[in-house]
Amino acid sequence: MLKNINQVLIISEAGRLRDSLRVLLKSCYPQAAIAETGNFSPSLLRLAAGPGALVLVDGDLPDEQAWQVMNYFRAPRTHSVLLAHSFAQQQQAREAGAAVILLDGFNAESLSAAVEAGMPV
Asked: Does CATH place domain 7-118 in 3.40.50.2300?
């Protein structure tokens, strides 16, 4: 488990998914400050840019916002993970160049392993 994650941004509409992600991430990264938003907001996204930042993006955001967010976080020091809800979304994420994609049904270990495998140095 990475200890250098100091801030997390969850981008998902309010509900069970976002609540579950918050609990899961707090258990994986208890030292991290966790922020949440339901949409693409460049001003909030700037808070999550930089070393030690982790951004989780729900692939079901409306109006192609998930892909806008993934493009925004192509900076080398911010780590982003796309949460795909279907194989079609997973494929679309690959085509969009997403570095880390998790398909529905992941657990804490697979989340932590995905973050560690894709974390910029």
From this structure: yes
